[in-house]
Task: structure prediction
Amino acid sequence: MAQTATLFNQSTRFQPLAPRPGVPPTLKKVLIVGGGSAGWMSAMILGQALLGSGVEITVLESPSVGIIGVGEGSTPWLRGFFEGLGIPESEWMPPCNATYKCGITFEGWSRKPGYERYFHPFASMLDNLTMTQFVHNVHARINGADVPAHPNRFFVAARLAEQCLAPKPAYQFPFDVWYGYHFDSVLLGQFLQKKAVERGVRHLQGHVTDVQLNERGDIASVRTQEGQTIAADFFVDCTGFASLLLQKALATPFVSYAENLFNDAAIAMPSPISGEIPSQTVSYAMRHGWRWQIPLTSRYGNGYVYSTAFCSPDEAERELRETLGLLDDPTPARHLKMRIGRVTEHWRRNCLAVGLSQGFIEPLEATALLFIQRTAERFVGYVEQGRMDDSARAEFNQQVNGHFEGTRDYIVTHYKTNSRTDTEYWRANAANMHLSDDLKRLLTLWLHGRKIAPEIDKQAIGRGYPVFSWYCLLAGMGLFPEAQDLRAPTADEARFSLDEIDNLIARSALNFPKHHTLLADIPPPRTDKALQIYFW
Ligand SMILES: Cc1cc2nc3c(=O)[nH]c(=O)nc-3n(C[C@H](O)[C@H](O)[C@H](O)COP(=O)(O)OP(=O)(O)OC[C@H]3O[C@@H](n4cnc5c(N)ncnc54)[C@H](O)[C@@H]3O)c2cc1C
Result:
């Protein structure tokens, strides 16, 4: 193994509110405009770091503009968010109708026999025991050997998801498994709002109509329809796609990813849930995009993400309803427009954009809440060091942009490597040559059977997803020589027994409870020392 790295950021442990010596004395008032997930997550993260230093934090939200009301799946990093704030799962999950997420199944993205579906697992300590074998077999297969290399065979999370098991093992089992969550986004917003207010964040209602700049060009205050003028030293723009402060008032340019990623619209609608509650998101390929299916304790959240260049909203709604068996159902469908790309500077002057106001790389792989968390946490890191100058901003923006580009390339790869030919949408995606140089290099290495890990470590591409995920994606899509071109493996190529791996995974899975059983009685956080998760 070339390298290991911890997946869980152990540094985000809850720290009781206390003065942070580095906070600049000029920072007295922070105004967060917007009360969606971005607004309240930012309020919690900034609140934990700054309230103890006497900084006043206010969230201002419009009484007339609602939140986007989607965004119900997370990456494992959300666990770090709640643990960092000292909020146990047993406190936040039940009121948010939340469930556990072992990863995502991609269904129908590839038409290669044997690769019609694959699972993108969240890493587990156990995966350290099978990663070498997986990577060995992948390279053997790329080089023409007929050995099994489908990721689902190698990772315990795939087995858990397949059997509706929860990714939390029994206490006596020492291996930790990394997992994400599904939740009701409206309820999560309400929960975070209540917690933030309890911890001392102020909450105001008001619809911003005007943003005033001072003589230096910084934001001085916002004015609302209700007649308030609210001044602050620092502003956080969480106004969603409107981006009233950073993009409108400060005229920060936007870099569109429309050439890389074609989807620009979505339709969301719920459907009933019954029986066992799955512990995974499923992402089904559709005629002109893909649809998510997210299980909550109360319902499924469904959504069709598509491109209006290839299909009309009515056609998309019909296709979604047909697939869900809800063609004549009165449940309304919500149509949403998406702007795909990012701003050039996420922190400009005295304004930080967090959430959809800073950019969005479409919902595939559910990355947006992680951007919110990382942006706010990274910003806090600078403030705590007393660094709020031009050099801090430049460094910060470069880091956030790197995260955006790396993640974009990972998402683009799903479309580029699809092997569907049934519609113009999929053919155009496979033919799309708007790929970053990093991504072109990476795909070339893979197709030549070379190791991709050193390249991912070296490139900005690694700032999005780890090597582990890249292997799962490329192998899961079946990016191998055609079956008829494979040859019998050499003894070295065939040196790992899949039976042993199957056995190991089957035995490990016995330590995990049924998902619905665990949801009925979520245990308190572990205090024993679970082994750290490493991924390669
Ligand atoms: C189709 C779709 C699916 C998605 N799925 C996922 C997913 O699975 N996982 C994931 O992590 N993310 C997902 N996302 C992204 C996720 O929904 C957002 O990142 C998240 O909800 C944060 O949104 P926000 O708070 O930035 O914006 P919003 O929720 O739109 O909130 C904007 C806030 O600004 C306020 N506001 C607007 N105008 C004014 C004004 N004039 N004055 C005062 N206040 C104002 C509004 O009142 C509101 O409170 C998805 C997004 C889309 C579009």
